[in-house]
Amino acid sequence: MLGETGAGCDEFATALYERLQGEFSCAIVTYKGSTKQFFQGLAKQLDIPIEATSFNDEGDDEGGKPLTIDELKEEILANLTDDTLILLPESKRLPASVRYWMEDAISQGAKIVAFSPINLMKDMFLGMLEVELELPDDQIIRAVMQEEADRLGLNLTKGRLAELQTLAGRNQMIARKVIQRERLGMKQDRVEHTQYVVIMPVIVAALFSFAVVRFVGLGTGNRGLYITGGVSLVAAMALKQLGHVRGARKRLGQ
Description:
- With about 250 residues, the chain is mostly helical.
- It has three domains: about 10-125, Rossmann fold, CATH 3.40.50.300; about 140-185; about 200-240.
- The chain has helices at about 10-20, 35-45, 70-80, 95-105, 140-150, 160-170, 170-185, 200-210, 210-220, 225-240; strands at about 25-30, 50-55, 60-65, 85-90, 110-115.
- β4, α4 (about 95-105) and β5 form a beta-alpha-beta unit.
- α6 (about 160-170) packs across α7 (about 170-185) and α8 (about 200-210) runs antiparallel to α10.
- It is flat, with a radius of gyration of 28 Å.
């Protein structure tokens, strides 16, 4: 499931988990830096033991001993079925070791839904179907902004709310930030969001074509053609290098 940051992927993952909990053995886990905690959280949600029972020489139970990460991985794999559904918000965070394990989980029949701003196009992501989450419509953005204003105790007129909505685009995260900035009394300039076509390659190609003119001038002894072609060629090479400069990207929610 692809969706830009702040577009509601986490909320969608939670809603999907609640919707399918009765049909599948569901788990929703987010990687937060600890592989052990990730797999322990996954095992607990799937009712898989994370401790191994140990007995003394007399046969008495001495309590559980926590499984190592490798043992935990094997235990979870052994308990996966076709009815297992694992939801992975912020899947771009997953380290290689977890992604490789997920490939084994998929081969065991488990269903995996990964949420990410982009398809990383490696290991487990290569075999996954892509579904793009649509950006929320204006009504949803307006509702999110009103909810955030109510939470902050901010009373906004419909006119002011409509004016602020032009700054939020169609991104829920930015919509909340706009209201927070309004609550702090910070100046917010209107931002015009436009889409455009990059024609730099066309210009560079046209200028490079003047290299032919340069050679014609060189062959015929025409100094004017030679100079025009040379200047155009140098300009094309300069523009080609300038084309590698990267500035601001497309804004979220646009």
